[in-house]
Amino acid sequence: MTFMQNVMLRGSTYYVVLNIPPVARHAFAGKNQVWKSLRTKDKTEARNRAVPILAALEAQVKAASVRVAPTPLPSAVHQRIIIPRDHALAAIERWRIASVQRAYDEHWNDAAPAFAKFSDEAVRLSDIRYKLSVHDIDGIPSFYPAFSDALNTQGVGADPAHPVLPKLASAFADAWANVERHIERFRGGDFEHWPETAVEDATAPAPVAVPKAPANTLRIMEAFEQWNASEQPKEPERVRAYFKLLVSFLNDKPMAEIDHQDLDRFKLELRKYPFTKKDVSKLGFLEVIAKFERDEPGYPRLSETTTYGYWRHFNMVWTFAHGRQLIPFNPVSVVMPKKPAAAIKRKPYDADDVAAIFSTPLFHGASKMLDRKGGRYGYAKERGGVLVKDAYYWLPIFALWHGVRMEEIGGARVSELIKIGDRWAFDWTDRDLKNESSARFVPIHKKLIELGFIEYVQSQPKGGFIFPELPHDPNDEEAATKQFSKWWGFWTAANAKVKGQGFDEPKVKVFHSFRHSFKRQARGIIQENISDILSGHKGIASEGRKYGYGAEFDVLVEAIDMIDFPTFPVLPG
User: Fold this and answer.
1) pLDDT tens across 532-568, in order?
2) CATH of domain 351-561
3) Would you call 188 helix, strand, or coil by DSSP?
4) 3-state secondary structure 105-123
5) Which residues form the DUF6538 domain (predicted)?
């Protein structure tokens, strides 16, 4: 491919762009296109940087495209097979030996793909090796597709969603890690200790296929798992919970026997289902409703928007099964509710909320804050002398005084903190944020400087994230703050003086409310377009192009310093 086909200008930065063929997408977390920032605005420099990155990507595509057989999806035609444990373990070992031997031959003949020591590919492989060594399976998006491919190359047909794979994940992680260690040695010119002692014949008999079941016996969860393997939704566990409730209500009837009357009955009961954070997983669908009706009269129920999400996914799976002629009809389409009106708008935290939130032990000192492993302990409800200034301390403060999105500050890096003139700022002009207008310079508010935020950032390891304790995924900008978002909901409930009131007002007051608080405080004080630039509603893609390193940056500094929250309490140093 030519340079111009693979290098594109997005905003003011050049990126390498490569289309991934379907056969290789398993190695790229299912993506059909990969973007790699070249971190430069200069076309000539971009051309030079693009060459090794393109070569590494194309080599990765080529390696991922070498497959003996396509991964079979469970369906009416290809039923999920039974895989004996010993057969799978033997296949993993055969794959390990074959992979190491292939790497040995490639490096011995100087035919292995080359890449720079600190290139994106080198960093990616280093990250995978580390995660394999600690068995961080969830941290490797391509793990199960790679595991599936490994088994397929050894004659054991298993799709990435096969239930055997998680049970043998540790064994495959160790095998993969072993392959990577050998490759690293071969890359350094060390060819000793290979081949290993010959392994006895690990040939396993062909796996036994499950007899094809008649289509009218298909169960709800079986159809869901087939759809899940095919479509790979973003939050499969959350969606799986929807279907478990339906199965609980219908007593796991075959899908072909479920009609619109069954679904109408479920619809009526679903309207009674509670909105709760309690663990009710051990109770059946109707048992949960009965418990809340008995113990908590007037309990909050699932919103219309939430229940619509249930039906939307039910319809997807029934449509999937019907389209593949696994069931005779789709009754969900008959009872499908109308899409509800727009959700209730979020409310800002008002002056009283700001005073109450930042007067809690989280920001002044609690009796205990961290557990033995250094993780957050509870919700810091009891006052004491322990004050920990980490992500849980700084995220709410930063969000209030800057109006940024939670994932923007949660995923910020130490290297993004720069000094323009005599003022500190975050340079987010080269980050893959929510949209192009999110790319901008964000001056650090004088309040944060006063509280010691700059010293905190500078104390973190250079080249890393400013909040290393959060889970970071380079393929998911929001990964760092997903868990924190849930924690914040529990924290507000635990620290509110009255449940459901004040800053614990359900649904309408959430962490995003800080963003609304900033916008409301800015209204009438600074120009709306400047407020939009600061908060990321407009950035370098529009009005924000005018505000950069020069005198225009002073306009942003002057504007953000005009933002004040009089009820924000004095915090300990």
Assistant:
1) 888 876 544 344 444 444 347 888 999 999 999 999 9
2) 1.10.443
3) coil
4) HHHHCCCCCCCCCCCHHHH
5) 8-63
